[in-house]
């Protein structure tokens, strides 16, 4: 059942492998750049466009996605040999939906403003292709610890991209960072903010530029 | 590997029970904190109609609210009601406005939040009226503060459940809400006129007067829902508004 879904690069595990062996470091490092979920696999674009107008909600979203990815990967990996093949997608969905609802409830209790601001986007983590993609491609065929690392790596890969986009959008669109007026603090009173950056179009442009820079450096080409 | 149908059914049943149990546990555990968050949020919105609350901490909001807001509940005719049919006291903050909305206007309870100088509830500065209506996709609501002449709008806050981000959801933006400030709800003859959002964003100056403000482009239906909500709630509160006005003219004689 797992052969078809496991990644091809699966290496046979030796006994008592180091906690952070080279192979495991690669599991975390790959999604940060060479195999980035947003810029290379082009997954999770929706939320990358929608939540990135300001740094603060973006950071909350990033933490939420990392949490959901790590724990869904762990849970699915733990029960991977019990999951009936025919209903595996539904099982994955149920686990992800439960974790997302938990995140949403915690936000509602402890950070109501953030809950209101992010409301539908937190719910939409359920349909974020990165989460389901990793469950299907990795957690179903790998051991729990490796799956945690894979979830963490992909979560971080997603996070740094949306944080980078939010950085430029908030800076150029509102002249602020985390709500702090950067340009005013530097003594520039009349910084011309760019309204385009506040709209999703601005996110597209910045994402495009990030992909351009990244591919120019790594030499990656679409096949 | 093909599993039997029985295995699949048992597996999914167990999974459902575990996940469902987990969720209801979390819901129960977090309920008190969530209720407190909602209470603070409501008070923040009420105060938001008259002062800038964005810099206040939660505790400051609660303290400021206790010091400056006197809340009462009136009926359709503007008469003060203090107890419900069963005789238990009514608290304005606990009046469920969406639930009231389902009843006939004459049967509803109407809370009024009176904003006054800190610690002196005779020095009234504004009357804050809660409102509730329908936008494009779902309910919208808000709090509109009237000056002591009960005609000029001092400030307004609006919120929504499911309006489109960037379009209808803009009713939550300060910039849109500020358009209502200093508008009048009565015409020169003392008839209720309310305030309307026009279609589109850049209407000519001539189209804008004390009863008309710029709308939101791409959100005409939300704007219309907002106008309807204001119009109907001002008319529901008319009983109370008339009563306060007549009390004032008696007092000034």
Task: Give a verbal description of the structure.
The complex is a heterodimer of chains A (223) and B (253). Helices cover 63% and strands 2% of the residues of chain A. Chain A is mostly helical and 223 residues long. In chain A, α1 (22-29) packs parallel to α7 (144-174), α3 runs parallel beside α6 (129-137) and α4 packs across α6 (129-137). The longest helix of chain A is centred in the C-terminal third of the chain and has 31 residues, at 144-174. Chain B is globular and about 85 Å long. In chain B, a hairpin with a 4-residue loop joins β3 (124-134) and β4. The longest helix of chain B is centred in the first third of the chain and has 44 residues, at 5-48. The model of chain B has no long low-confidence stretch (mean pLDDT 87). The A-B interface holds A 1, 50, 82-87, 90-91, 94-95, 98, 101-102, 105-106, 108-110, 112-113, 115-116, 120, 199 and B 1-3, 7-8, 11-12, 15-16, 19, 22-23, 26-27, 30, 33-34, 37-38, 40-41, 162, 165-166.
Portion of residues in beta strands of chain A equals under 5%
**Tally of distinct domains of chain A:** 1
Q: How far from one another are the termini of chain A?
A: 28 Å
| Shape, per Cα inertia axes of chain A | globular
Q: How many beta-strand runs of chain A?
A: 2
SSE sequence of chain B, one letter per element: HHEHEEEEHEEHH
> What is the tally of beta strands of chain B?
7
Q: Spans of chain A of 5+ residues with little confidence (pLDDT < 50)?
A: 1-9
Radius of gyration of chain A, whole Å: 19 Å
Number of H- or I-type helical stretches of chain B: 6
How would a crystallographer describe the biggest sheet of chain B?
5 strands, antiparallel
Query: What's the assembly state of these chains?
Result: heterodimer
Largest sheet of chain A: 2 strands, antiparallel
- Global shape of chain B: globular
Order of strands side by side in the largest beta sheet of chain A?
Answer: 1-2
**Helical element count of chain A?**
10
The most extensive interface between chains reads: A-B, 26 and 24 residues
The domain tally of chain B reads 1
Low-confidence stretches of chain B: none
Name the average pLDDT of chain B: 87
């Amino acid at each position: 059942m797992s052969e078809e879904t496991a990644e091809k690069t699966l290496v046979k595990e030796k006994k008592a492998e180091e906690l952070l062996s080279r192979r495991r470091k690669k599991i975390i490092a790959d999604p940060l750049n060479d195999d980035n979920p947003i810029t290379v696999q082009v997954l999770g674009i929706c939320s990358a466009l929608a939540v990135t107008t300001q740094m603060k909600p973006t950071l909350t979203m990033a933490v939420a996605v990392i949490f959901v990815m790590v724990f869904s990967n762990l849970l699915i990996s733990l029960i991977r040999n019990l999951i009936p093949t025919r209903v595996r997608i539904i099982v994955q969905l149920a686990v992800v939906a439960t974790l997302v609802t938990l995140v949403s409830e915690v936000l509602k209790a402890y950070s109501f403003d953030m809950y209101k601001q992010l409301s539908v986007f937190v719910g939409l983590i359920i349909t974020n292709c990165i989460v389901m993609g990793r469950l299907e491609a990795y957690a179903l065929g790998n051991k729990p610890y490796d799956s945690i690392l894979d979830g963490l790596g992909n979560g971080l890969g997603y996070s740094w991209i949306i944080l980078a986009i939010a950085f430029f959008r908030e800076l150029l669109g509102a002249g602020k960072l985390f709500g702090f007026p950067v340009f005013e603090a530097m003594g520039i009173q009349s910084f011309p903010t760019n309204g385009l950056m506040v709209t999703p179009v601005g996110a597209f442009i910045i994402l495009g530029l990030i992909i351009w820079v990244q591919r120019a450096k790594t030499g990656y080409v679409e096949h | 590997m093909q599993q039997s149908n029985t295995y699949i059914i048992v597996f999914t049943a167990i999974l459902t029970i575990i996940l469902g149990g987990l969720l209801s546990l979390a819901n129960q555990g977090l309920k008190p904190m969530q209720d407190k968050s909602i209470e603070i949020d409501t008070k923040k919105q009420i105060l938001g109609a008259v002062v800038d609350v964005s810099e206040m901490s939660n505790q400051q909001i609660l303290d400021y609210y206790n010091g400056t807001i006197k809340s009462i509940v009136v009926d359709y005719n503007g008469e003060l009601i203090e107890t419900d049919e069963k005789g238990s006291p009514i608290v304005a903050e606990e009046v469920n406005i969406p639930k009231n909305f389902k009843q006939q206007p004459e049967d509803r309870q109407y809370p009024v939040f009176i904003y006054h100088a800190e610690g002196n509830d005779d020095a009234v500065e504004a009357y804050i009226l809660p409102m509730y209506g329908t936008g494009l996709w779902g309910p919208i609501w808000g709090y509109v503060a009237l000056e002591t002449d009960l005609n000029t709008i001092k400030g307004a806050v609006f919120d929504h459940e499911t309006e489109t981000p960037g379009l209808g959801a803009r009713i939550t933006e300060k910039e849109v809400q500020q358009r209502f400030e200093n508008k009048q709800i009565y015409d020169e003859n003392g008839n209720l006129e309310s305030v309307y959002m026009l279609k589109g964003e850049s209407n000519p100056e001539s189209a804008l007067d004390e009863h008309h403000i710029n709308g939101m482009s791409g959100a005409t239906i939300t704007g219309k829902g907002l106008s309807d909500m204001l119009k109907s709630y001002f008319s529901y509160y008319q009983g109370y508004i008339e009563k306060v006005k007549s009390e004032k003219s008696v007092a000034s004689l």
